[in-house]
Structure formats: C-alpha cells, structure tokens
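Reproducibility note. Readers wishing to regenerate the assembly model reported in the main text can use the exact inputs given here. Chain order matters: entities are listed in the order in which they were concatenated for prediction.
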Amino acid sequence: MKVLVADDDPVSVFYLQDVLSEWGYEVVVATDGLAAEAILRQEDGPLLAVLDWMMPGRDGIDVCHNIRQAGMARYVYMIMLTSRTETEFIVAAMNAGADDYVAKPFIAEEMRVRVRAGRRIVDLEQELRRQATRDALTGIFNRGAILDLLQKEMARQARASNCLSLIFADLDHFKRINDSYGHLAGDEVLREATRRMASALRNYDAFGRYGGEELLAVLPDCDPEHALFVAERMRSVMADTSVPTAYGVIAVTVSIGIASMNAANAMDMTELLHRADSALYAAKMQGRNCVIA
Ligand code: GH3
Ligand code: MG
Ligand code: MG
Ligand code: MG
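Running the prediction on these inputs yields the following structure tokens for the assembly.
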C-alpha cells in the first residue's frame, strides 16, 4: 500500500521513508504542502498520508482541509505529524479533517501502530466500496454502479465532444439453460459469459450487470464502427466455444444492441439506454446470436 510522507525536514522524511518501507509500505514523498495535495488528488494517489503540520507554502492543516472539501471518490486517511500537542492544536487538526496525529519527534513503534490503524480503515472502506458497486455473482459492476458510470461518462464525453457507445447484451434462451441444467449451471454460464465478454473489451471500457442476464458495456471514445467490432468480438467469444460446467458442456449465444452518442446527437441516459435496448430487441427478432447497431 502506498503512503504519502509530506515533510519539509529532510531528516524526518528520510527516517519515515526508512521505517515505512521496512514495514512494507510504498513511500511517496512531498516536501511541501502544495505537492502533497497534488499527489493526494491524483486518481490513483495514496490512500494513507503522514503530513507534517508546518510546511512552507501550504501547511498540513490546509492540505487536510482541502482534501476533505475536494469530494474525492475515495477516502484518504491522514495522520498529522506535529510538535504542537496541546489539546487546542489537536482539536484544530482533527477539525480540519485529520484522522489522527503523532507527536514529533515520533517513536517508530507508535508510528507503526497508528499507520496500521489507518490501514484497517482504508481496507474496510475499499471492501465496502467493492461490495456496494460489484455484482456478487459475476464480480462485474452492479446495476447502480454501471448506470452511475454511464451517466458520468456521458457528461464527460459531451464536454469533450467525443463519441460514446453503449452495448446492451442479453444471453439467448437463458431460461432454457436453467430449465435443462438447473440454476447452478445457469450461474456458472453467466459467470463465464461475463468473464469472456469482459475480455473482449478494451481496458478503459466498463462492464456491468443491468439485471438478470442483461449486461451493459460503456465504451468511451468509441464510434459506432468500432463498437460494432467490439460487440462482434463479444458475440463470437460466446458462440465459438461452449461453456464447460459441472453439469455439462453448455452452448450459449448472446444477442447485442448498440447505441452511440456524439456532439451532433446529444441525448440523455434514458434515451441512449432505450436505443440500445431497441437494437437488442431487433437482434432478438432477427433470430438471436447477432449484433444490431
Ligand atoms: P431470450 O433469448 O429472449 O432473451 O430468452 P431468455 O430465456 O434468455 O429470456 P428471459 O428474459 O425470459 O429469461 C431470462 C432468464 O434468466 C430468466 C431468469 O430465471 C434467468 N436468470 C436471471 N438471472 C439469473 C441468475 O443470476 N442466475 C440464473 N441461473 N438465472 C438467471
Ligand atoms: Mg515542517
Ligand atoms: Mg435472455
Ligand atoms: Mg433477459
């Protein structure tokens, strides 16, 4: 796990770096508050930070305050490092958003247990976020998370005047699979189907379960032509190879509908979903195991 160490005192930085890496943390260093804040705001920035109170430019308290105000998607656990240990200073630090504090000069063992307590919080927060956004059966995004992501991505693409494509996929005659092989076999097929279809996507695409055996892929910066190519790949990874399960080898195909949006034809999320759903319906009508844009 990455830990940010922000301190203007090179001796303090050196010591912290030394002990933290010995305890297995990956240390990122900033020597002033501005740099510290910039690092914490990065998309994959550290989730744990040890911040010196007194730093040139922007002090640790301001960094805490700004990070809490920033409304970031992830929680950053911040430990204030301070030589001011009177109650009023501690209250000020924690009011600004610090989670904990360690008195300077610090004792390594105390730093170790306080960072470890922070890590417990960060781990719990990440697990909670995973459970809230992932589908329990397949591990892909759940309905709430994929729709949330679609909404955000549509706004982002509209600002950038980029094209976004949406793929709506539905397994064919899935009820028959449940009826013939049982629901546990159906579950296995669904898991394998999402795994295969996800591998057909680019790594900045998002994939989620809309409901039952209906799946949504959000493809940013993707025109209809390329979306068709991706969807065809998703279709063929299913059609080309049957799925081996504990209950037998099961052939399963998928029907896919595509809708795209760009600056010239802006629309809201409901409209885009509706279009992809209509295309999916047309694919079913055309005989299934096909893609319609
Ligand atoms: P179509 O080709 O028209 O899509 O036919 P279908 O049978 O796939 O369509 P329908 O939507 O009627 O049936 C979907 C079935 O998927 C019904 C439901 O029991 C099953 N299903 C939904 N979620 C799950 C799941 O998590 N596990 C299993 N095993 N089955 C599921
Ligand atoms: Mg200092
Ligand atoms: Mg179906
Ligand atoms: Mg369905």
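We highlight two features of this model. The chain has ten helices and twelve strands. The longest strand covers residues 164-171.
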